[in-house]
Amino acid sequence: MSGSVPFYQKHHRHYDRGYRYQSGSRYTAGTSSSSSSTRGLDWSSPSGLDKSRLNPLPKRAKPSYLAVDKENHIIGYVVPLFRSSQDFATGYSDAEETRLRNTSSHMERRDLFTSGLEMERSEQVSRKEAMRESAERISLNKTIHEHEEHFKRMNEDSLMHAPEFVIKPRSHTVWEKQCVRLHCTVSGWPDPRVVWYKNNVAIDPLTNAGKYKIESKYSVHSLEINRCDFDDTAQYRVSAMNSKGELSAFASVVVKRFRGEVDECLPAPRHGPVSEYGINFQTHIVDKFGVSFGREGETMSLGCTVIINPPLHRYQPEVHWYRDDVLLSPSKWTHMHWSGDRATLTLTHLNKEDEGLYTLRVTTKSGYETYSAYVFVRDADAEVEGAPGAPLDVGCLDANKDYIIVTWKQPAVDGGNSILGYFVDRCEVGTNHWIQCNDTPVKFARFPVTGLVEGRSYIFRVRAVNKSGMSRPSRVSEPVAAMDPADRARMRGTSAPWTGQIIVTEEEPAEGIVPGRPRALQVTEATKNYVVLSWKPPGEKGLEGVMYYVEKCVSGTDTWQRVNTEIPVKSPRFALFDLAEGNSYCFRVRCCNSAGVGEPSDPTEATTVGDKLDTPAAPSKVVPTRNTATSVVVSWEASHDAQELVGYYIEASIVGSNIWEPCNNKPVNATRFICHGLMTGEKYVFRVRALNAAGLSHFSQESEAVEVKAAIASPAPPFGITVLECVRDSMVLAWKQPAFIGGADITGYFVDYRDVIDGVPGKWHEANIRAISDRAYRVTDLKENRKYQFQVRAANIAGVGIPSLPSDTFLCEEWTIAVPGPPHDLELREVRCDSMTLLWKPPVYQGRDPVNGFYIDIKEAEAPEEAWRGINTKATENTFFKVKNLKEGETYVFRVRAQNQAGVGKTSDISEAVQALTKPGTKEIVVDVDDDGNISLNFECGNLTPDSKFLWSKNYEDISDSSRLTVETKGNKSKVTFSSPGEEDIGIYSCLVSHTDGASSSYTISQEELKRLLEISHDHKFPTIPLKSDLAVEMLEKGRVRFWLQADQISANGKVDYVFNDNLVSQGEKYKMNFDKNTGVIEMIMESLTPADEGTFTFQMQDGKATNQSSLVLIGDVFKDLQKESEFQRKEWFRKQGPHFIEYLGYEVTPECCVMLKCKVGNIKKETSALWYKDGREIKADEHLGFTEGVLKLEIAQISKKDAGVYEVVLKDDRGKDTSALNLTDQGFKDLMNEVFDYIANSSTPLKITSTDEGIRLYTFVSYYNDLLPVTWHYKDSAIAFCDRLKSGVVGDQLWLQITEPTEKDMGKYAIEFSDGKGGLRRTVELSGQAYDDAFAEFKRLKAAAIAERNRARVAGGLPDVVTIQEGKALNLTCNISGDPVPEVTWLKNEKGLTSDEHCILKFESGKFASFTVTAVNTSDTGKYSILVKNKYGTESADFTVSVFIPEEAGGKKK
Description:
The chain has 1455 residues and is mainly beta. It has 10 helices and 101 strands.
């Protein structure tokens, strides 16, 4: 076997060959004997169900009847085996204790929980054993009851099933005032909840006390209706619902009345037999759903409105939905709703199983009505590109304990690659864990799934696979339990429906009997993947639960090999896998039980492994037939000798596309199918293939191509027959065209008439033998004053349709009224959201005078008759009228009245109701003028049908003079071209497209429009080449002159002539011409201009028949200026060949108010030098310029008048030199300084106010101050005249204005103005109000502080810090004292007052000088002395220290 793994196995790690025999849980019953097998029950279970609890005799070991799983959780009860129940009982009887002790092994079995276990024992059992067993049963029942809910949670899938009606309610017919009782029996687990409904309305006994009585006992449910009356006639439904599903049953109750008691108010029956209620219901289904298309996974709702006459709110019909004639029931996939007048079916999650013909059937007592339409379901987008569609209709066959056969249908879409096979997945009910059942894909659409847990329920799904990948999974199957049919039937029996009760028979089990040979062994199904065997159990009775071993043998040998070596088979069926395809095998089966293995059965005949079912043959003779505008009927001949045929798939392809699309995704069983959803007008071919379980057949041969369009049928009847004129022996009739014309134009009408005498109509007579094309006809040979009825039939190529309903009865008498008759044949065209055009035909009966006008009336369709209103106040002479200013979305009707001199006549019949709405895709007529000047009107229609025609008219009348215009139609476009437009062509041109939903449009050619179109036509006949720009001149480098223009559109064949003063010029040394046809640029270049070149230059262009020219006149001053510019540019070019100035010398002022002279140079090299000069004197030299930016700079900081002068820069090297000068004298210097002043002014801060001891000061700061800066101070917008009290000045970068001793007169607006030679800059401040008060107060404070500081007492020098003096010497110290008033002087010694005496003399003279004199100092004079001066402005002190020493001490210290 190859080492590579298929891609569909790479992500599945659970595959091995043992998966078919795996089991979810195992449990057995055994004894406590040491010889019991390992499959016995563990009595030390943690569940607490030990031996002592179950047995009233603890010393005696007894068997258990509880079944546990691997985790020792109770999951069931083991039932003793009896002879009459050996086919479905599980477990062993406890009656034979000795036999149980000697048994070598016990088969595992599981059964349902039971309550109320009653076991009848044989009379041979002793009374003692009977008492013991009774005690055991009591204990066991109690234990089972305690663990019942736990068991249900742990293993509920084996018990739960949807409700089923064992006995359904029966319909009743009763007399009034009688009682009726409806009852039913329901099974299901969990116990279903039962609800009764009357006409789909839940019955509540509490709201109708005494009327209804509902009971539920022992799964029997009843509804009792007391004293029935006529209102109780209804359909009653009983609904049973649990967690596994819902099921309903229906019964009808008919309440009869005695004769003569029928209400007179009930209407008499109109048609059909009279119902038993005296009412005949008429049912109409409207607002129907159409053919629908959905995609897997989407939600779709189908609905119809049902109208029942007469309407009785107390009566509701029976509403049923069918799919492919199979009644649908509510489920999670289908939801049904009946609102009383609308039936809705909702498909909650579309799958391909939902595809089919859906039928709504509404049944009343008078009969039923049905409506059907097909629903198509397309595959959902594949998760992997190229993957096939999902399989469908997954179901289960032959479900038993050991395996379940899963079936499905192959998908119609294979993704472009053949399907390799299918994978089957299973999921245990109640979980979301899906397990893949086969490790390799199977091609056969049936597969037996093994490895299931007996009694548990499963759901299945299938996936298809091809080489591109895996499909989406199919819809899951219905749940199915892994158990034998007999067990399933017993569990769903009527006697004990899922109550857990165990049925016990009277027969005693047999002991130790080896079973006999199985019977009737046969191969029921064989494929290349598996073989299914079935047999009958041995005929002997009284055997224990029999299991089976299956053996196989290769045909022609005697070597038998046991297939199921691990676990015996429990059911008389088995599926074998892993057989070699093409080999022949024989099979046999042995029975076994605890007594041993029996003899083998007779072997089967040799069976060759392989698919016995062949794929069907391809269908043949595929014939498509036209049906509708979007559908085709496809029929074919069935596949020959097809076995187990499932159905057919149909595919369609547009001719030439080679792309095939499926028409159905669910196989159809018939040989005829309607393929919907096709494109109108396209041609399709079809092919069919059949399928069965073995696979899909080859495709049939392709059918003949058929065009998709509606099949032709005879038209519907006309309607609206009216009389337009009546004379003594004839009448003029008019009628309206049928709504359905049968897919072909109506070729004519046939009129019949009959006389009516005394209300009795006579026989019909033909009025015309040959068909008439108009919808008006004069019927002649009538008799005056006789009444007649008429009918009309329409005809087309398919034949004559059925006649219309007979008209009203008309009296044939001559009209003599003076006013005209009614207009007729009203038609609405060009319907838009705000307008539409009404057309009509004039009345046949003119009246006394000819018709001279018409009036049009309008009203909303739903408005009353009083809402009619006129549109035009003045009669129109036309038979058409465009109604404007309509409300979008509103529906309108119209009528027309004709007038003559006698007055206004009768109104016409009301027009059809039309909604003011612009339909999607609506086009308008477009006027066009081609290159040859031909004027045409063009109309395009996007929804053409094969029979559609473009009908052009002028003023809504057929165009009679075809010589003036030509009509041309191609595809969905039509064009009217005027031959020679003139005054005769003025009018309204309209186009109507037949066989559409009213596609039409109009275009009005008025006098002004005709003039505009003729001008455009002339321009197209005699075209000019458009120009983007006229001829212009520009200067190039080296002084060359370029003449150029640009044409907007010109082809490669365009030509240009260059003309100067009416003479052609050509390419040469003087003139260089160029014509770029891609851009349309035409140019002529001259190297230089000379006086001879003064004149007119012209470019003449020609492109086919289109021409144009442009001229440029260069004479006088214009030419001279251009010539000078050319010469200058030529010189400039030569100058730039050496070092030169790109930007000449200029200046700029930096934010620091420095002046920077700079220039930009180019074409320099290392040897280039730059010299700076001022007034002819060199001031700077830059040698060997090495800069890259090419900028030379000279900075002048703090510029002043001395910096005025002429600055010059000279560049030079070996290639030449260039000079640039800058004049900064006079005006040049003024301009420079003004720019400096501008920088200074803009840097100034806002004007602020401060106070000094002298007054108030206004000031501002600038970033830099220049002495030349002109500044002016203003007070109240006038320049200030400075004086001693008003002064200005500059301190550093501060400019100030000082107001000395301010007064209130100084209040006002102050400003400082900086002059920069332009507008200048002014800063202002308001010195008034609070600002002035605050400044003035601060001034006063500062002034007072200044005075105090100036006049306060002071000690002004003269005193040392320390005085060292010899004892006996005199000390004299003097200091200056100032202050006003004269201060008081006080002396202190060691901070104590000192007075003047003979030893210490203190003096203060002239108020200025203070002296301190000690005549002869001694040591007592040592200390700290202070002088303190004080007046009213302040106090000040000065300190000094006096140190007196003795000379001897000083000398000793030196030594």
